[in-house]
Amino acid sequence: MDWLPLASTGLGAVIALSGSLLATSRTGHDQLDRERKTYRRQTYIEFATALDAAHAALRTMIREPAAPQDRRVRARAAVGDSGLFRVRGDCCIGR
């Protein structure tokens, strides 16, 4: 019996299967990279928006007369209410 056709058919099947698995794996990695970039972009936008809200709240707060101790408390509240720390914490989770 001649083994060469059988061996070359088996080798061809292995090559085709490995190529298909490699292409599928690469597609999965590309999709994961796109999802990570989208998440990162959304987080950057949320952080910039929260930073702008905190800045606006601080500018509004400073225009109103108050004692220095009250300003400190009001400034902490203004920055805390802006969601800046929540967004900053979300971006550091490591997604």
Question: What is shown here, in short?
Answer:
The chain is mostly helical and 95 residues long. It has helices at residues 4-63, 68-81, 84-91. Helix content is 86%, strand content 0%.
How is this structure best described in words?
The structure is a single chain. The protein contains 3 helices and no strands. It has helices at 4-63, 68-81, 84-91. The longest helix is centred in the middle third of the chain and has 60 residues, at 4-63. The N and C termini lie far apart (57 Å).
Topology:
Layout: H1 4-63, H2 68-81, H3 84-91
Helix pairs in contact: 1-2, 1-3
Features of this protein?
single chain, 3 helices, mainly alpha, about 100 residues
